[in-house]
Amino acid sequence: MTDLVDDLDTTVAAAVAALQEVLDRDWDVPASGLTWTCRETIEHVADDLFAYAGQIATTTPEVETYVAFDCYADREGGPECTVHAERDRGNAGVAQILDACRGMLSALARTRPADVRGAHPYGLSDPHGFATMGTVEVLLHLYDVAEPLGLTWDPDPDVVRRVLARLFPDAPSDGDPWQALLRLTGRDPAAPVDSWRWDGTVREPG
Which of 81, 63, 206 is nearest to 125 (CA)? Predict the structure, then answer.
């Protein structure tokens, strides 16, 4: 089944298209609800896709911790990333690394054996699980930068439903899936949560 990997590709394509419309804006403004700037937030998403690809790329996948990529923040309080866009390439460079890291994760999720497992703090997962983690990172963090950057972000509800089914097995199956995802991840001011996490663990059919 490639639906979950297709969802990663289409979600990042939509994100890059939305970002291309606001390349002339100031991406160094704070993202909503975060201590990071919008630029840092998109850089963080690209880094997540790269890191998830790394978890399933090695000959002997790491099932206890992350692959030993060196991560560092550009400033105190910023996100720790392995992937950093060149400053002189501007906002377009940040959008480009997002798409490039999508390509890495997508290719690996499509070609690695289904029984490959990789470590994540939210559950030992498989290639499709890591692809879905990438999708949820893009969905949520584009929401975080949408208002500050003045971009439109209206995710495909079918994609969101599949994300919920794979990573949030206790999510309600009725109602608006996008609003459900925002509530579950602490982004609905009417329903604050102290903490949240998804469950990337492989659930065998049965």
Answer: 63
Of the candidates 155, 132, 182, 137, the one whose C-alpha atom is nearest the C-alpha of residue 17 is 155
Altogether, the residues listed in the chain come to a count of: 206
Give 206's pLDDT tier (boundaries 50, 70, 90).
very low
Tell me the per-residue pLDDT of 49-90, one tens digit each, with 9 for 90 and over.
999 999 999 998 888 899 999 999 999 999 999 999 999 999
Tokens 């930068």 map to which residue? 145
Nearest-angstrom CA–CA distance, 132 and 162: 8
The backbone torsions φ and ψ at residue 179, rounded to the nearest 5 degrees and listed phi first, read -65, -35
Mean pLDDT of the chain: 95
What one-character DSSP code corresponds to residue 121?
A: T
**DSSP one-letter code for 38:** H
What pairs with residue 21 in β-bridges? none
Distance between terminal CA atoms of the chain? Answer: 17
